[in-house]
Structures are given as C-alpha cells and as structure tokens.
C-alpha cells in the first residue's frame, strides 16, 4: 500500500497548533520554545518531509550557499568543512564547485551557482572582476570573498596576514644567520602570492640584504610538480641558497621530494620553511618548519558573516577581516650565525 505523505494539516491536528504557527517554523521563523518542541515531535512521528522546492518558491529562499573554489585541496577543503559544519546547524546546505584554475570555467561555475538560486556565495577568486558578477549584484546576494579580494569590487572579504607572516618567516631565517634565502612563489597574478613575495622582499630591505633575483622562483599553486621543479632549479644554481621558503602546501610537497631526491641534508645542507600542513610536518624528518594558516577559523568566520548578512544585517559592510597565520620553527631550520 502506498503511504500518503503527511501534510502541514496533519501536523496541526497532531499538535493542536495553528497552520500559521507551523508554517512560520517550517520557513525558518521564530516560534515559542514549547511550540517548537511540539512541532519537531510531530515531524518525527508523522515522518513529515518539507517540500524544499515549494518552500523556495514561497519564501524566495533555497537554503543553499554556493561555494566557488579553484581546486579541491587541503586548504580549501578544510575551510569548506568548517563552514559547512556551522551552516548545517542553521538549515543551510552547501553546493561546492571547483573551476580548476581556469578563467572560463570560473565564470561558468559562477553562472551555474547563480542559476541554482543560491542564497549567498563564498568565492575564492582568481580572475573574477566586478563585470563578471553584475547579475549577482542586482539580486543582492551576499558575497564573501575568501583568501583573495575580488578585483574592482567591494564585498565582505576574509583574508590571512600573508604579507606579515611571510615577513616573519624570512625574518626568522635572517636572524638565524641566513643571507642567501630562496623563495618559491605562486603565480604573480594571484593576490596571496603577491603578498607573500612582498613580505619576503620587505624583510630583505629592512635588514639591508640585497635580493638575488636568481633566488626567486615563480611556480604554480595547487601543483606539486611545480614545487619540485622550482626547488631543483634553486639547488642547481652555482651559488645556491642556504635556506628556502616555499609559500604553498602542494609546492612544499614537491620541494621536499626534490630535496630528498638530490640527497640534500635538512637542515645541515639546506634550511626549509614550508606551508600549511601540520600533519605533514609530523611525518617529514626532521620535523618541518611551517607557516600555518587558521583554516578552521577562516571557515567559522565566513559562516558567521554569511549568517549575519542573510539576516539583513549590513553592519560594517563591506568588512575586511584579516586573520593571523603563524610561523612554527621546527628542526628543518639551522642557525648559521
């Protein structure tokens, strides 16, 4: 026998509450605590399922958040997981799209999320500009940019202190006697890569150390092979660096493989500071010095900001929140003073 789905009227009969009160609760409204308990008991007892499509048409809300990321990797995945944990508690689900560092695909994925009528967007942009998001602006959808601002467009943005933490990493190497410091950067068109290189340059300027252009290598974020190749290039310079700062997780993995392949002893032959993964630092011997970003905190801050904007609270808009990464010096750095 086919089971007839429970309706809002069945919940009203079960609880003795008005349809208006039940409807208010189902659409995210606030009801008395005793009524909430009754309604939730009825939903469970009657096996009631909310018709999300119908509710979306009534409320103009889909209870979904669109997330646009360059690739699936540790940094972005951890942020999404943290973000999703909080949003799920408030009834929101998350649609995640990656654009594989491709400019055309980035715009296509953004358009896909727009057509899905998401209630808000979290974007980690690479090529996006204001002209790419005109439709979204017209619909007044809350947008939070993460890790990098959107070019020519003011919106809420959650960043990490990339300049300052890179300065601190290079400064620690300088204070430990290093003057020949290599850096493996990301692409020059990406904000985070620019900021990390700027921190490296400023530390050299402040300590009156000349910058050797041969020690600056531009790789590709999210590409382990890139870190491998750039580290090989640094190691094969006639006057190689005594220390290398690698500014991205995947490139750090590749660089460590290159160091091992060349049988370079860390830190006796080369001091190394990498990026992001504490678990990797425990596996690599000697323990790897790292810049560690507050990935879970980023997700929590983004979720909190989204929920605030979705309630119509525009206080401090556009907000730019900068969180602090940390430099953790372990056994991969040698004092040569």
From TrEMBL:
GO molecular function: DNA-binding transcription factor activity; transcription cis-regulatory region binding
Coiled-coil portions: none
Organism this protein belongs to: Caldicellulosiruptor owensensis (strain ATCC 700167 / DSM 13100 / OL)
Keyword Transcription: yes
PROSITE patterns per UniProt: HTH_LACI_2
Descriptive protein name: Transcriptional regulator, LacI family
InterPro entries according to UniProt: HTH_LacI, LacI/GalR-like_sensor, Lambda_DNA-bd_dom_sf, Peripla_BP_I
Residue intervals of the HTH lacI-type domain: 6-59
PANTHER family: HTH-TYPE TRANSCRIPTIONAL REPRESSOR PURR-RELATED, LACI-RELATED TRANSCRIPTIONAL REPRESSOR
Phylogenetic placement of the source organism: Bacteria, Bacillati, Bacillota, Bacillota incertae sedis, Caldicellulosiruptorales
Keywords for this protein: DNA-binding, Repressor, Transcription, Transcription regulation
